[in-house]
Amino acid sequence: MSNPILQLKNAAIYQGDNLVLSNVNVEMYKGDFVYLIGKTGTGKSSFMKTLYGDLPLTEGEGQIVDYDLKHLKEKDIPFLRRKLGVVFQDFKLLTDRTVNDNLLFVLKATGWKDKVKMNARVEEVLAKVGMKTKGFKFPHELSGGEQQRVAIARALLNDPELILADEPTGNLDPQTSVEVMEVLQDINKNGNTILMATHDYALLLKYPSKTLKCDENEVYEVVQRKG
Ligand SMILES: Nc1ncnc2c1ncn2[C@@H]1O[C@H](COP(=O)(O)OP(=O)(O)OP(=O)(O)O)[C@@H](O)[C@H]1O
Question: Is residue 178 domain-resident?
């Protein structure tokens, strides 16, 4: 088997001095789609934040896309994040510019220079999420589901080895959640690896996949019952 994209061994997740999760052992491989579930406050976001370098890993071992989380330096974080695509519940689009400019902004910030290639890449990722014709719109001219598609397109720009989606459907109605989930399923089928935190059990039942649960300061795999 190839090397894991994500591997945590006996890791502990802290918020400041507060232990949120202990003894975390998780592995993910290329092409996996893994859910992270758990009640509110059980540590899903803290887990995600540790993976993208927003919280330090101080106990246990953690490797993610070839970075060692335990010895991650401040200067490594932008480079780590280039290998990850992070999607948030509240989309986090820049409201003062169009969809195209939101995406071009990220490309510029991550070192792209060639305008022709940049425009082509923007068009390519928008096509992947079914938003090719909406690049000229401002975020406020889009529905929540469309904004989340753009956020997913933004996450795809630098061809990430792992997509971390923290409650990506949390602000969306059930029908729109399914549409966004279809996008995530499509990109997973095309080879992208995805870790998705959610408390939307309807989605889990509709799109069953490996599921990790945060509960009582631990993370463990749960086996879904067949419907
Ligand atoms: N910035 C912070 N400083 C201190 N403690 C925090 C902070 N953020 C979260 N916590 C605490 O860490 C624990 C885990 O919170 P976390 O946000 O990771 O849970 P969650 O499962 O993602 O919840 P939700 O589904 O509501 O987002 C909670 O007890 C919370 O109060």
Answer: yes
Q: Is the pTM of this model over 0.90?
A: yes
Residue 106 lies in a domain: no
Domain count, the chain: 1
Nearest CA to ligand 1 atom 8: 15
Pocket of ligand 1 (CB under 6 A): 15-16, 18, 20, 38, 40-46, 214
Give Cα 227 to chain centroid, integer Å.
Answer: 27
Handedness of CA 125, 129, 133, 135 (dihedral sign): negative
Both tokens assigned to 82: 């280039």
Nearest ligand 1 atom to the CA of 38 is 21
Atom of ligand 1 at shortest range from CA of 48 = 18
- Atom 14 of ligand 1, nearest CA residue: 43
User: What ipTM is given for this predicted complex?
Assistant: 0.91
Query: Which residue in 47, 173, 155, 44 sits closest to 93, CA to CA?
Result: 155
Q: Which is nearest to 91 in space by CA: 7, 137, 15, 147?
A: 147
Domain that holds residue 186: 6-92+161-222
Measure 88 CA to ligand 1 centroid, in angstroms.
15
Helix (H, G, I), strand (E, B) or coil at 131: coil
Mean pLDDT by 10 residues, the chain (227 residues): 92 96 97 95 96 96 96 94 93 97 96 97 96 97 96 95 96 93 94 95 94 96 74
Q: Report CA(84)–ligand 1 centroid distance (Å).
A: 22
